[in-house]
């Protein structure tokens, strides 16, 4: 919608800006056209406010003819033609209105006197339209800047939510209880494994906390964090859980939102591996597809368990973070969730701008 018409205050301010222009038009008609001051005011103010609404159409042409990318010549020609046509319509309306005022008793020759000034009025109309177009480009730039700030703020907010989500998973009673239980059990039978699990848990917590101020990280680092999380779970599940990671070399440096895979790995273990007596493998793969990145995670699941349709808390958070990341990077992003038989599959697609 037009940014001036969305709020009454903006429309009132815009119309107020045309009051001095109406007075200037009245002065020109009175000084150069020999029209009586009262008749000039009665003629100029309605015409000015009519043209104010006509010039609002410049917004839509500004949206269609961007100044970016070297298209400013095309935009200038388009607005010049629009100004010529708009001013012609305005001048014709002025001729009609002057005739009506003349027949209404403001001077029988008012229509003729205005007709003598049509070229001057038309020239003023073209200039006013071009000034209006320039003003609308400024409004468009301001709106774009405001939207960019809003997207950046949303990204920061979602990043903070992701960190809180990761911290909540880290201090989740089930997660910590099971991890500490496993450490306690291993301390007597396999002290080396118990120490390893302690180190893994500490390293996982430390790395997660260090991501709070980063908008994106290399995919290799993101998958390393997911591997640490799954390594902790491997100590608890033993041979029931195996991990397979396939990462193309050209994908290692690809930038992704931090902690984008941790909720997916958590879902894979809690809703997949944990529900199967025989366990299974969590498979993570990252490949290049043209200029974009495709990241998939698969895990076996109980075919009889309730289906996850992609609306769970973890999946919803990942989807929102992808949307914010795509908005900031001006690219495309999506999250697809499928379940075929006993395999649950999540695919993240990040396309370059």
Describe this entry's structure for a reader.
The protein has 353 residues and is of the alpha+beta class. It has two domains: 141 residues, no CATH class; 180 residues, Heat Shock Protein 90 (2-Layer Sandwich). Helix content is 65%, strand content 14%. The chain contains twelve helices and seven strands. The strands form two sheets. A five-stranded mixed beta sheet has the order 2-4-5-7-6, with helices on one face. Strands 1-3 form a two-stranded antiparallel sheet. A hairpin with a 2-residue loop joins strand 4 and strand 5. Helix 8 packs antiparallel against helix 9 and helix 10 packs parallel to helix 11. The radius of gyration is 33 Å and the shape is rod-shaped. The relative contact order is 0.07. The mean pLDDT is 83.
Count of separate DSSP helical elements: 12
In CATH, the topology of the largest domain is named Heat Shock Protein 90
Q: Low-confidence parts, pLDDT < 50 over ≥5 residues?
A: none
CATH H-level superfamily of the largest domain: Histidine kinase-like ATPase, C-terminal domain
Estimate nothing, just give the exact number of structural domains: 2
Q: Characterize the overall form.
A: rod-shaped
Please give the structural blueprint.
Blueprint: H1 8-17, H2 19-33, H3 37-55, H4 58-64, H5 72-106, H6 110-116, H7 118-171, H8 173-189, H9 191-209, E1 217-218, H10 219-237, E2 241-247, E3 255-256, H11 262-271, E4 280-289, E5 292-300, H12 313-329, E6 332-340, E7 343-351
Parallel strand pairs: 2-4
Antiparallel strand pairs: 1-3, 4-5, 5-7, 6-7
Helix pairs in contact: 2-3, 3-5, 4-7, 5-6, 5-7, 7-12, 8-9, 9-10, 10-11
């Amino acid at each position: 919608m037009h940014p001036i018409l969305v709020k009454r205050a903006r429309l009132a301010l815009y119309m107020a800006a045309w009051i001095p222009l109406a007075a200037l038009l009245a002065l020109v008609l009175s000084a150069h056209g020999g029209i009586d001051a009262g008749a000039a005011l009665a003629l100029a103010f309605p015409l000015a406010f009519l043209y104010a609404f006509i010039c609002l159409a410049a917004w839509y042409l500004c949206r269609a003819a961007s100044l970016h990318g070297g298209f400013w010549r095309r935009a200038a020609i388009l607005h010049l033609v629009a100004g010529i046509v708009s001013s012609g319509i305005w001048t014709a309306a002025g001729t009609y209105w002057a005739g009506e005022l003349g027949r209404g008793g403001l001077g029988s020759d008012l229509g003729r006197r205005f007709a003598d000034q049509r070229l001057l009025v038309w020239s003023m109309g073209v200039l006013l339209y071009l000034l209006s177009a320039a003003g609308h480009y400024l409004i468009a730039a301001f709106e774009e800047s405001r939207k960019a700030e809003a997207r950046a703020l949303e990204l920061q907010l979602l990043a903070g939510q992701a960190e809180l989500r990761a911290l909540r998973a880290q201090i989740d009673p089930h997660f910590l209880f099971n991890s500490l239980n496993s450490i306690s059990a291993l301390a007597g039978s396999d002290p080396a494994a118990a120490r390893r699990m302690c180190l893994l848990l500490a390293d996982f917590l430390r790395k997660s906390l260090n991501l709070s101020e980063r908008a994106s990280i290399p995919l290799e680092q993101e998958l390393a964090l997911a591997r640490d999380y799954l390594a902790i779970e491997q100590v608890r599940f033993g041979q029931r859980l195996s991990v397979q990671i396939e990462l193309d070399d050209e994908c290692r440096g690809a930038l992704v939102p931090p902690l984008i895979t941790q909720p997916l790995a958590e879902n894979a273990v809690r809703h997949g591996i944990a529900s199967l007596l025989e366990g299974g493998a969590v498979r993570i793969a990252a490949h290049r597809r043209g200029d974009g990145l495709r990241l998939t995670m698969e895990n076996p699941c109980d075919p009889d368990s309730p289906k996850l349709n992609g609306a769970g808390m973890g999946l919803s958070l990942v989807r929102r973070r992808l949307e914010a990341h795509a908005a900031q990077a001006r690219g495309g992003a999506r999250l697809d969730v499928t379940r075929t038989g006993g395999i649950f599959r999540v695919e993240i697609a990040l396309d370059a701008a």
